[in-house]
Design goal:
about 240 residues, about 35% helix, seven-stranded mixed sheet, Rossmann fold, disordered N terminus, alpha/beta, globular
Amino acid sequence: MGHHASGGGGLSQADDDAVFPARALDPELIETGRLLFARECRFVAGAMDPAGLPPETLPEVAFAGRSNVGKSSLVNALTGRRMLARVSQTPGRTRQINCFDLGGRLMLADLPGYGYAEASKSLVKQWTALAQRYLRARRTLRRACLLIDARHGLKDLDRELLRLCDAAGLSCQIVLTKADKPRQAELADVLDATAAELAQHPASHPEIYVTSAQSGRGIAALRAELAALALPTIC
């Protein structure tokens, strides 16, 4: 991707423009995303089994990633609500798929984190099976956002999820989180390495979004991207 800045403190605006193509930063698209995510967003289901998921009536976006990668924080930042998705300092606390109805136009699904070392093997197997069944069989699922810690890049369990999306023919979009943490050059290296790996996965969306729930970086652009998947506004 060619992000070879030096120094600290994360990406500059110029670097953000390189990460987010011009069409994704179009003011009309940004406003469309803002309006969508300003709508009422309510919790509708917490399921530990696919049978407990809400009816497949809305297009759906799933947020997946390793434990403590910031899934709940990202959902809260996108919707502008601090307490919509529960944020815990203890990894592995999200043990079910939590579904949120965004204004009757889009369903947001916060998946259990994977890779938490302290969880029992049986619990990890249960969480993994739930996520796999959901990703393979959910007919209204339009995209999986795979959240990656910007300090560390892709790990083996993330690669397994990418392969699962390939097999299911499910569009998978990488979202780097905690982009306020690494130095600029380190973030650029993670971007380049991630982009190189994505070229090997046919179901991967070509754009990588760089976000920080704390600073708000990348949130508006990601809203605009996801708004394109929602049901159209009925006048």
